[in-house]
Model the fold of this input.
Amino acid sequence: MEDMVKLKHLLEHWIEHNEEHERTYKEWAGKALVAGKPELGDILRRIATETKNMEKLFLEARKVL
Done:
């Protein structure tokens, strides 16, 4: 059972950092647009979207745990 306690803490950590990464990707997407790199900005926005989808999976895993 000790592993499940550790996993609970890891999931909380991963959720927190996932949210931070999503914000960072969006921030850099904006910077890429300002720098005249719309394709790069679009890719970074898509990465942010996928990161948000990962958050849903982390939350689902936490619920199941």
User: Anything to note?
Assistant: The CA atoms of residues 43 and 65 lie 33 Å apart. The mean pLDDT is 95. Helices lie at 2-34, 38-64. The chain has two helices and no strands.
